[in-house]
Amino acid sequence: MQAMVDGVVFDWPCVVQFNWYLNDKRIDSDNWAFTQKFILDGMQAASVQGRKFLVNDNMVHVRGLHHDFYKTDGVARLEVIAV
């Protein structure tokens, strides 16, 4: 919801890009990628002033999912981008 308040808008339908920045290359990428389900469910649950961020995470709205993984020496984080 904070992203919506900050003006983040995805132009649905789109491909959702997940950029994972992790501190350790020994981490299994599939262990992180599975969390996309919870992220998309959160996007569906997010609503500000009656406006939903994502109406549904079916193929009508989400055309694809793409994951890239990077090692960072800084703070581990995830960037979610509409492509």
Write up this protein.
With 83 residues, the chain is α+β, with helices and mostly antiparallel strands. The protein has 3 helices and 5 strands; from the N terminus they run H-E-H-H-E-E-E-E.
Nutshell version of this structure?
The protein is an alpha+beta fold.
Structural class: alpha+beta
The major sheet is characterized as: 3 strands, mixed
Total count of helical runs of at least 4 residues: 3
Mean pLDDT: 95
Q: Helicity, in percent?
A: 10-25%
Poorly predicted regions are none
The rounded distance between the terminal residues' Cα atoms is: 20 Å
Order of SSEs, N→C? HEHHEEEE
Query: Strand order across the biggest sheet?
Result: 4-1-5
DSSP strand count: 5
Radius of gyration over all CA atoms, rounded: 14 Å
Outline type: globular
Measured by DSSP, the beta-strand proportion falls in 25-35%
Notable features of this structure?
alpha+beta; three-stranded mixed sheet; 3 helices; RusA-like_sf
Architecture blueprint of SSEs:
Blueprint: H1 2-5, E1 14-22, H2 29-33, H3 36-45, E2 47-48, E3 51-52, E4 62-71, E5 77-82
Parallel strand pairs: 1-4
Antiparallel strand pairs: 1-5, 2-3
